[in-house]
Design brief:
mainly alpha, 9 helices, 82% helix
Length: 330
């Protein structure tokens, strides 16, 4: 590997690391949500289309092609992708199950009480309606039914207040546990991303730039630290807030990964075989992120903008292919 390639990879890697740092620093200030839900849906749909096209048309074929040069079977690459996907999924689910089990009895009791109260209210309202339809009203019965409804409404208010208290308790537990998992996984994810970026830029410049561009796009729309989770029939709004020191380590992790890549290159170069196994593992995490965070859920999103994102990436691929052929001819 020529020194020129290493220098170019280092310079570009540091620039990309700084872009990551700026993206993380100013994400909340310039996030899509701040521009309104319609603007967010359009931009997220474009990024989702771009991400899906990148994953299936560029990232996967590149991993399989590279590992095939080392006489690795397709199963090996898929295994690494599978492990990455399961790792990120299970890490989150274990936390949610743990918190859910802690509050399961309380929540289940609350849900049962709410359903019973709804049934009682409907029965009482039906009786009151029947009584009012009579030609001669029974004032005593009406007063009793009205009193029953008043009591049920009071119970409903108390249950809602109790539900709010439970939500606060759940949010506190979730945020603390998710923060621990989020900090560790996020740090090592971006550390490996930085290492991969440096080595891709060194080996295959275009692939390194495309991967970096995708990773930055993912960072701009990521909502892992701020979303709604449903435990039983109760929606919980989670928001992870990192401490200043942890936040500094987190936002500089890509830069750290680039520097680690350079150190290894000087002292003990990492083979492309190892790098692309890391790449396959990270691609499993990327697939989970695309499905879980990037692709708009349910009725959200704009199909035309999703197709536009796919089209943009295909045009970029065609341009890269034409440029490569032109360089080979020259």
């Amino acid at each position: 590997m020529s020194e020129g390639n290493i220098v170019i990879a280092l310079i570009l890697g540091l620039v990309i690391g700084i872009l990551f740092l700026l993206t993380e620093l100013y994400h909340e200030k310039y996030c899509f949500e701040c521009k309104g839900p319609k603007s967010k849906e359009k931009q997220v749909s474009i990024v989702a289309g771009f991400s899906i096209a990148y994953f299936f048309l560029k990232l996967q074929p590149e991993i399989f092609q590279e590992l095939s040069h080392h006489n690795q079977e397709v199963f090996t690459a898929f295994s690494a992708i599978f492990i990455g996907f399961c790792f990120i999924h299970l890490s989150e689910k274990i936390v949610l199950k743990r918190v859910g089990n802690q509050c399961r009895t309380i929540i289940k009791d609350l849900v049962i009480k709410k359903k019973q109260l709804e049934i009682e209210e409907k029965v009482t309202e039906h009786k009151l309606s029947d009584e009012l339809e009579r030609e001669e009203w029974d004032k005593l019965s009406l007063r009793k039914l009205a009193g029953t409804l008043t009591g049920l409404n009071q119970q409903d208010k108390e249950l809602k207040k109790y539900e709010k208290e439970i939500k606060v308790e759940l949010q506190s537990h979730l945020n603390k546990d998710l923060e621990k998992v989020h900090v560790v996984i996020n740090y090592f994810y971006h550390l490996i991303v930085g290492l991969i970026i440096f080595n891709l830029l060194k080996e295959v410049l275009i692939s390194g730039i495309l991967f970096s561009f995708f990773a930055i796009l993912k960072a701009t729309i990521s909502n892992t630290s701020n979303r709604h989770i449903k435990i039983f029939n109760i929606n919980i709004h989670t928001k992870i807030e990192e401490h200043n020191l942890i936040r500094i380590l987190s936002i500089t992790s890509v830069l750290t990964g680039v520097v680690i890549g350079l150190i290894f290159e000087i002292l003990y170069p990492i083979s492309s075989f190892v790098i692309f196994h890391f790449f396959a593992f990270i691609s499993g995490i990327i697939l989970y992120i695309i499905v879980r965070e990037v692709i708009p859920q349910e009725e959200k999103g704009r199909p035309y903008y999703f197709v536009s994102g796919i089209t943009i990436f295909i045009i970029i691929l065609i341009f890269i292919e034409l440029l490569s052929n032109y360089i080979l001819i020259v």
